[in-house]
Write a structure and sequence with these properties.
Blueprint: H1 19-30, E1 37-39, H2 40-48, H3 54-66, E2 70-75, E3 78-83, H4 85-98, E4 110-115, H5 122-135, E5 138-141, E6 144-148, H6 152-161, E7 168-173, H7 181-188, H8 191-210, H9 218-232, H10 235-238, H11 252-279
Helix pairs in contact: 1-9, 5-6, 8-11, 9-11
Length: 280
Amino acid sequence: MTAVPETPDDESGVRGAQPRQLIVTVYGLYSRKEGGWLSVASLIGLLADIGVEEPAVRSSISRLKRRGILEAVRRDGTAGYELSEQALAILREGDERIFRRKRATLAEGWLLAVFSVPESERHKRHLLRAQLTRLGFGTAASGVWVAPAHLRDATAEVLRRLGLDAYADLFHAQHLAFGDLGEKVRQWWDLDQLESLYEDFLTTHTSALGRLRRPGHDGEAFADYVAALTDWRRLPYLDPGLPVELLPEDWAGIRAADLFFALRARLEEPARAHVARSLA
């Protein structure tokens, strides 16, 4: 089970998810058992349960198609869309990241990415920076990017897939000296922004955990779960699981993760039951 993370130019922010972000979440969670395909009618019905009207669904599908995330495919005469190979690759990458609870430890060390791109290929320099940012790297110095070591395989896979591996080197490193590493982390990542985003997530979704749900109304669980996952799935990319020893006391990211995984435990199965009935 997974969801596709945002690409760098998507609108973001915890409040007010865009319809296409909700569509990506629905595809990521529920379409792969159908070969990555959902009918247009099914998608419109499911999004209606979240409060998205049909014109917005159709417009968003068109945008996702133009961006290479969805491809139009008819099955048994029924119009529908399936995930592209590009989207499926992002799904596989996102599985580990979005549903990972374990944070990095200082003993595991750091992953350094060092790159050099000729001036004649500056567009690849921009792409490299964008991808490292999306993966959750911080900037230690010009051309030197840092992340927890557990991102090694995911980073190597992304750089190979995009043909950027010829321009970069990856190193496994330890911070030996100088200065306070916690202060360095504050320089390499915008922890204040992350704290604000996590607080927004807590404010928006805490009520869903305590909401009383009527028997047989699994659509309510579906709507709450899709909304929470859509808001959550960007956050593990902005915060790459930094070691807790280097984070501020009572870090909102830990409380937000506790909330998300509690919502997942409570809502995942009734939401899936609702989707199964809708698709049937």
